[in-house]
C-alpha cells in the first residue's frame, strides 16, 4: 500500500494520500475482544451459538468493523487539518467492510488487490456462480472448475483452502460482493503478463474497472547485514546461472523430517544452492518462523561440511538482492505473489512449492498457464504436514536447472514487466487513468 501510494504521488504531485493502518494483529485482537465483550454484554444469547467461541472466520468482519469509529475520526480530523477535498478511499482487499464508511463521507471506494488478475477473476467467478446458480465450491471434491480468464479448468487441488471451507468461503463471498460495489480495482500485476485474465475481467458483467498497476515491489529491501554481504560475496564467486535458490516466504518453515528430505535432494542434485532455512514459529500455525541459532541442530549430520564448497544455508535472506544476482539459475518458491513478481522481474525461472493462501493457484498459473515454472508440487498445503520426498524435489530441481525451455519465456516476461512502469508503459497508463478517474470524482 505504501509503495503504491509513493508511486501515485510521484505521478501526480497534487494528490495527497493519507494511510490509515490497523497497526498490528495484537491491536486488532484487543479491538475484537472489546467488540466481542460489548456484544456479549448487549446481546441475548442466540440459539445456534452453542456457547462456544466464535470461529476466526466469523470474527474477521467484526474485527475490521471494530476499527470503524477510529478510522471515521482519523479521516475527519485529516480532512479538517488539510482542507483537502476527499477524492476516494483505496481499501485493502480484505477490508471491504469499510465501503459504507466511504459512503458516509460521500466518497467512492477502490480496492487494492495484491495478488494477480487471474486469481481475482477466479474469486469473482466462484462468488458469481454461487450467488446466481447456487454453485458450492466446497462440494467440488476431486473435480475441476472451468473459469473465465484461464485457458484450462482449475483443479480443486489448487483451490485455496479458504474457498473449500464453508465458513471461510462465506467471508470470501461477502468480500467479493463488496468488490463489485467499488468504482475500480487496482491490481498488482502487469497487462503483458496476465493479458488473458485482464481481458476477461474487462468483459465480465458487474465487474468494476480493473487497473493493472504493477509490478509494485520493494526491491531495495532492508539495510543489509554482515551475513547478507557475505552471501552476496559468495554468490559473486559462483558461475552464472549455476545456483538454485530455495526460499519459502515470510511464513515458510518446515519440520525436521522435511528439512532432511530437502537436504538430501540438494546433495543428490549436485547443483549449487542457497537455502533459506527457518525454524517453525512456536504457538500455532500462524506463528512467525524465526532463525536457528545453529542450523546444524536440524540438518543431517555432516551436511554442511559435505556441501561447504557448493552451498550455503541461511536464515532470513534479502530475497530481491539474491534474485538479482547473475549466479542464480532457478528459484524454488512458495509462489507468494510478491515472490512471483520478483522472480519475473529478475527473469529467474521458478519451481513451485506452495504453502497456503492462494499460492497453489499461483503455482498452477505459473506452471500450466504461463509456463515459466516447473512443478515440485502445485497442491502442497502447509496445513497437511505432508512430506515431499527427496526424490520428488530432486527431480524438480534438475528440471528447473537443466531444462532451459522456461528460461526464454521468463526472460521475455521479465522485459515486458520491466517496461510496464516506464513512461508510456502499460501500468503507467493505467495509473494515469486511475488518477484521472479519482481527480474527476465530484463530491
Ligand atoms: C509484499 O511486498 C511489499 C512491498 O512492496 C511488502 O510491504 C509486503 O509486506 C509484502 N507482502 C508479503 C505478504 O510479504
From TrEMBL:
Region (Disordered): 43-62
Pfam name, any one: UDPGT
Entry keywords, A to Z: Glycosyltransferase, Transferase
Pathway named in the protein's UniProt entry: Pigment biosynthesis; anthocyanin biosynthesis
Reactions accelerated catalytically: an anthocyanidin + UDP-alpha-D-glucose + H(+) = an anthocyanidin 3-O-beta-D-glucoside + UDP
Similarity field: Belongs to the UDP-glycosyltransferase family.
Protein name: Glycosyltransferase
Amino acid at each position: 500500500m505504501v509503495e503504491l501510494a509513493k508511486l501515485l504521488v510521484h505521478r501526480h504531485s497534487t494528490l495527497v494520500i493519507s494511510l490509515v493502518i490497523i497497526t498490528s494483529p495484537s491491536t486488532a485482537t484487543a479491538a475484537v475482544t472489546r467488540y466481542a465483550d460489548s456484544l456479549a454484554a448487549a446481546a441475548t444469547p442466540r440459539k445456534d451459538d452453542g456457547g462456544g467461541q466464535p470461529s476466526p472466520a466469523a470474527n474477521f468482519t467484526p474485527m475490521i468493523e471494530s476499527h470503524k469509529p477510529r478510522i471515521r475520526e482519523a479521516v475527519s480530523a485529516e480532512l479538517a487539518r488539510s482542507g483537502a477535498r476527499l477524492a476516494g478511499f483505496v481499501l485493502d482487499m480484505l477490508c471491504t467492510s469499510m465501503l459504507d464508511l466511504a459512503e458516509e463521507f460521500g466518497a467512492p471506494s477502490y480496492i487494492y488487490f495484491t495478488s494477480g488478475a487471474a486469481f481475482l477473476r477466479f474469486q469473482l467467478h466462484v462468488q458469481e456462480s454461487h450467488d446466481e446458480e447456487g454453485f458450492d465450491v466446497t462440494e467440488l471434491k476431486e473435480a475441476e472448475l472451468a473459469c473465465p480468464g484461464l485457458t484450462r479448468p482449475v483443479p480443486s487441488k489448487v483451490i485455496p483452502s479458504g474457498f473449500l471451507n464453508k465458513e471461510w468461503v462465506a467471508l470470501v463471498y461477502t468480500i467479493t460482493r463488496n468488490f463489485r460495489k467499488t468504482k475500480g480495482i487496482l491490481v498488482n500485476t502487469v497487462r503483458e503478463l496476465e493479458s488473458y485474465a485482464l481481458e476477461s475481467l474487462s468483459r465480465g458483467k458487474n465487474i468494476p474497472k480493473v487497473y493493472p498497476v504493477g509490478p509494485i515491489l520493494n526491491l531495495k529491501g532492508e539495510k543489509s547485514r554482515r551475513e547478507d554481504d557475505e552471501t552476496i560475496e559468495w554468490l559473486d564467486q559462483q558461475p552464472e546461472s549455476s545456483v538454485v535458490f530455495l526460499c519459502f516466504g515470510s511464513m515458510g518453515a518446515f519440520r525436521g523430517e522435511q528439512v532432511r528430505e530437502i537436504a538430501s535432494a540438494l546433495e543428490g542434485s549436485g547443483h549449487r544452492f542457497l537455502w533459506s532455512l527457518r525454524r517453525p514459529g512456536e504457538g500455532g500455525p500462524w506463528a512467525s518462523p524465526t532463525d536457528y541459532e545453529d542450523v546444524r541442530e536440524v540438518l543431517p549430520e555432516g551436511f554442511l561440511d559435505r556441501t561447504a564448497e557448493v552451498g550455503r544455508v541461511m536464515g532470513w535472506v534479502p530475497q530481491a538482492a539474491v534474485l538479482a544476482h547473475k549466479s542464480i539459475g532457478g528459484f524454488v518458491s512458495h509462489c507468494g505473489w510478491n515472490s512471483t513478481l520478483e522472480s519475473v522481474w529478475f527473469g529467474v525461472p521458478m519451481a513451485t512449492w506452495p504453502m497456503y493462501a492462494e499460492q497453489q493457484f499461483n503455482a498452477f498459473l505459473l506452471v500450466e498457464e504461463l509456463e515459466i515454472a516447473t512443478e515440485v508440487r502445485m497442491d502442497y498445503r502447509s496445513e497437511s504436514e505432508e512430506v515431499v520426498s527427496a526424490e520428488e524435489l530432486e527431480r524438480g530441481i534438475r528440471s528447473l536447472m537443466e531444462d532451459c525451455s522456461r528460461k526464454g519465456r521468463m526472460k521475455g516476461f521479465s522485459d515486458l514487466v520491466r517496461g510496464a512502469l516506464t513512461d508510456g508503459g502499460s501500468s503507467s497508463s493505467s495509473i494515469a487513468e486511475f488518477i484521472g478517474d479519482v481527480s474527476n470524482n465530484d463530491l
